[in-house]
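Retro notes (design track)

What went well: tokenization of the new backbones is finally stable.
What didn't: we kept losing track of which sequence belonged to which structure.
Fix going forward: every design gets posted as structure first, then sequence, in one message. First example under the new rule, 277 residues:
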């Protein structure tokens, strides 16, 4: 079963700087306009973290700050030019997704390279190489960036490296190593990592086949809202593998995945209803 490699969305991170306490006080008091003044002053004084944090405020449009993604982009660019990794990463996300800028994977690559050099955004850079977006497709390079990301505790990097190992893309196929990377991702509560690990246990690749363990990993991912795992767990209940056969439970799980937009879940609801009539 092919798994999608997902792009992580940028998140707001408060940077350490001399003005941070004043900014935190303003944030805690709910005075977002004061935050704008503090970060704007810091940015104008050449503090890249001030430009970045101001960009985050405009990007989120929280409190009494009007959302202005175009302005956020300008501020990220200023911070990135001063080698502020998080700003470069956010710009990469913006250009890769066409968020308030024209989609440009080549530019996304440049920004991800800058952030990855500082150990941030390496998974996203790997994705560009895996998908051949803005670069020549190169799974070996993708694997290198995923490995670096995983070493820096980017769990999606661990999961994606596991995917390449399982598929034998850019690296020798190795289900055992794949299971180890999926396990690390799952231990960090990354749902897709748990789902992938559940699949390996279901088919007995890289690990001894164990439907009970498979059901446990699917259950963990399903409870985290990963609809594919709900569907996969439903199949185990329908077939009585690793769990007691329970068509009612299976239908609930199929319906849950269907309600979240998974086509296979909807089809399985219909199929189960037909079989159990």
């Amino acid at each position: 079963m092919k798994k999608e490699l997902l792009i992580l969305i940028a998140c707001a991170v408060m940077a350490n700087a001399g003005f941070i306490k004043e900014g935190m006080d303003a944030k805690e008091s709910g005075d977002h306009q004061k935050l704008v003044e503090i970060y704007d002053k810091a940015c104008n004084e050449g503090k890249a973290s001030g430009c970045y944090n101001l960009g985050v405020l405009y990007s989120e449009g929280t409190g009494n700050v009007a959302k202005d993604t175009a302005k956020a982009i300008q501020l990220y660019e200023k911070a990135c030019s001063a080698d502020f990794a998080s700003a470069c990463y956010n710009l990469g996300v913006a250009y890769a997704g066409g968020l308030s800028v024209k989609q440009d994977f080549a530019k996304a690559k440049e920004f991800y390279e800058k952030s990855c050099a500082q150990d941030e955004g390496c998974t996203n850079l790997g994705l560009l190489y895996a998908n051949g977006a803005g670069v020549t497709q190169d799974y070996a390079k993708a694997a290198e960036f995923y490995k670096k990301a995983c070493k820096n505790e980017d769990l999606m990097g661990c999961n994606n490296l596991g995917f390449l190992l399982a598929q034998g893309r850019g690296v020798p196929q190795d289900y055992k190593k794949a299971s180890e990377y999926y396990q690390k991702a799952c231990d960090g509560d990354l749902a897709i990592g748990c789902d992938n690990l559940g699949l390996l246990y279901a088919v007995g690749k890289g690990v001894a086949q164990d439907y009970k363990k498979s059901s446990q990993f699917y259950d963990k991912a399903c409870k985290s809202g990963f609809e594919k795992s709900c569907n996969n767990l439903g199949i185990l209940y329908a077939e009585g593998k690793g769990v007691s056969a329970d068509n009612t439970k299976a239908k609930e799980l199929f319906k849950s995945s269907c309600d979240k937009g998974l086509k296979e879940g909807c089809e399985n609801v219909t199929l189960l209803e037909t079989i159990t009539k």
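Added context from the reviewer: The chain has 15 helices and no strands.
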